[in-house]
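Weekly modeling sync, notes
Attendees: AB, CL, MP (scribe)

Item 1: holo prediction request
CL wants a bound-state model with zinc ion before deciding which constructs to order. AB pointed out that an apo prediction alone won't tell us much about the pocket. Agreed to run with the ligand included and paste results into these notes for async review.

Input as submitted:
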Amino acid sequence: MQNDFFSTEEFSARQKTGLRRAINHAAQNSPFYRRLFDEKSLNPDQIETPDDFANVPFTTKSDLRQAYPYGMAAVPLDKILRIHASSGTTGKPIVAGYTRADLECWAEGVARICEMAGVTSKDIAQISFGYGLFTGGFGLHYGLEWLGTTVVPFSSGNTERQLALMQDFQTNVLVSTPSFAIYMAEAARELGYNPRDFGLKIGLFGGEPCSDAMREDIENQWGLKATVNYGLTEVVGPGISGECLKTRGMHILEDIYYPEIIDPENGRVLADGETGELVLTPMFKEGFPVLRYRTGDITRLIPGPCPCGRTTRRMDYITGRSDDMIIIKGVNIFPSQIEEVLAGFPEVSPHYRLVLKKDKGFIKDLEVQVELTPEGFTDSFQELEALDGRIRQRLRSTLSLGPRVKLMEPKSLERTTGKAKRIVEEQA
Ligand code: ADP
Ligand code: ZN
């Protein structure tokens, strides 16, 4: 859509007005930001340039938790048409409320993301994200309808029925988490289908990281083109950024969401290309506005233009969320680093989990549990031990730490219809 092709000047102008609008609205109508601006003696009228904007304090997940349930509202509650809450992967839920204008802006944004991924009004999309407080289902639902796509609002679960309807309805677009797409392919095979026969054309995947290995697996199994999109409840939900068909990073809807990358240690704003924490400001949000929200997601803004011709900047794939960072014996590890090592071994599958043994709040031990592929599975203890040793050695050279590796039988780890739970904590 045209907004994805604005000139740099057009974006700067829009962002300048957008940020002004966001600051004024928050300062005037949100009790949370009124107090914050007061405390920091910040005059909203003096925040004009991007440099001034860097003086606005960050908003964090804990601010939003403390505001539970309605402390972030900047409009009377009768103007709120819908409430969502984060799925609470990492703690107490965070509440978001949307006005009519918020819902429209969100739907149009998601429509742009779907269009970038090649979806059209002629397609039939099955939404296998959960409907409910989680923003995934409803977010994609209204976005796809905005685009004119036929929507099958299946929601998550009941895999067998999902597959049957997918076939009957001639669905050609699948909306889900990447883990669910893998699980569905596995389930399809078990039921005697070849996933490729379903005729899926495009996958819109989000809600959790999708490693190269997972993407390859999904594309090979289903014979579809996998695209990844990104979003979070605190800012709006899905539809903040998404891949075009060049699949080299996710275009951010920069005319709606103002992105910054900061050094998570000291909060300094980093240049394009530098890796740090993504900070987002939705510029037109009325209901529950946030300014400079620290997403906790680690990425970078990719410098240079995308070969597709769109002018919105792209963000790179999320290498980890700060909540998921594992600190063990002074070494910082993201699950994605372990996943990358595992992907180098054809004998093991993308199904893995990390079991942390904790004692007095500290991680004492890390065990990497990973399933063997049916081809990698063997009865030979020697072969398994050798593989275990090789994986462990590769982990050690990548992480400078050699966690224990436990090779599991195929299909022994729990499957999920939503986001995969990679980290399991146990008390030592
Ligand atoms: P929760 O925090 O409970 O998981 P959300 O459903 O709002 O709540 O999830 C948002 C988070 O999901 C993001 O902050 C990010 O960590 C993760 N996420 C969403 N999309 C992607 C993606 N494409 N790649 C990696 N992580 C993603
Ligand atoms: Zn592109």
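Recorded for review: The pocket of adenosine-5'-diphosphate (ligand 1) is lined by residues 86-90, 134-135, 206-209, 228-233, 295, 297, 318, 321 (CB under 6 Å).
Action items: CL to compare against the apo run; MP to circulate these notes.
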